[in-house]
Amino acid sequence: MPSMIQKNGQQFLYQQVIELIDTMQETGSLRPGDKLPSLRKLSYQLSVSIPTVKQAYVELERLGKVDARPKSGYFLRSASIDISTPKKARFTPKPVPVRCQTLIEKAYDTVHSPNILPLGVSHPVMASPPDKNLARIMRRVLATAGPKIMAYGPMDGHLPLKRQVVQRYLERGVAARHEDLIITNGAQEALAIAVQCVAKAGDIIAVESPTYFGILELIENLGMMALEIPTCSEGICLDELVESLNEHEVKACIFSSLINNPTGYGMADEKRRELVNLIESRDIPLIEDDVYSELHFCEHDVLPLQAYSTKGLVITCSSFSKTAAPSYRIGWILSNFIEQKAKGYKRAISCSSSLLNQWVINEYVRSGDYDRNIRRLRQVLKTNKERMRATIARYFPENTRVTDPKGGGVVWVELPVGCEAIELFHLAVQAGISITPGPLFSASGKYKRCTRISYGVPWSKEVEDAIKRLGDLTYQLLRQH
Fold it and tell me: For the whole model, what pTM was predicted?
């Protein structure tokens, strides 16, 4: 057996052992029911420690890929149920008013309820939180900055932080200037400013379907109309987008083309370039919700949509909420064609963002600790994703379908016929578990049998037991129908 272990690589050694076993299964070297090499044998063949191989085998067992048999060893399991990807939603090519605020309020209430396991919220950084680093930096900032750190900051943001963020975009191929970047209170404020700069009440906004419910609630509160563009495993369906743009006067598009929330689907680089060219050829502003871009599972660097823009009509909205600290509420909007109008909205809405939090985040990024934790976080999230998909496959009924995300911290689950996601949501809350029902992610109430479940949490027996409990509740719903 040739060694595939890269001891100087970024991946943990045990994860590389897991990938080797997966490769052996894919090539037919290991078939369902076969015994895996002993710990000692594989340790010798790969020149790694026995505890490393043991950790990999224990992880494979947790993923549901192997069985541990007392005094016999580990044996490869066969898949017990279908975990194909969910089906593409039916295309309804007309704009609709959004009416989802009441259900969103119920979902939010459960997230902050005591004794609830929060699998309904997308906080991927919590899988590997940098709280100790941030606490240390905050103490140092408070000690050195003096009273000025408690004052209002500049309306458009702390200049050193703006320069840090812009430098990161420059490194990714975007010709950005710090004058074009405004620090906001999270990405949600950035999205609110962006859409108000390019549209007004009654206008049509094209969104992905499904899409993040915060975007739908924003459109609802601004009195605009949502035009749903279906997505599939390859991202936004461009043919349906063209059809929609031909039939309706779309004022703006809001897309998360790299990692969609809630599906985790993403578009290939060439398709993303085609997307920008298509929308800019019609002189339509494109707002990119880019909060998950640094949590991709790709082997290569990925570019924001602004890198493909030729007319400057792409507006980037992002934040550190998914990658550093949700409660710091530090986001930004980057655009060189709505800059002055965006500053006016920022000044009117919130005046400025927390100077202390901006200062701390700037020091965190500048130190290099941010990038080190991002690399670790990606690996943890990728492992958690596999755990989540395998655990759902083990405990949910046959014909359950699950997405295979390309990044981020959530999976999109399509339940079998006879199971309603809102019913499961209420039963889950009673069992002390929060999930997010599918209809929240659609302006027209689609996805009644879908739900979003977060794997952006520290994995534990409690999490695995919660997934098993959700599976039991799904079986219960099937029996009732």
Answer: 0.83
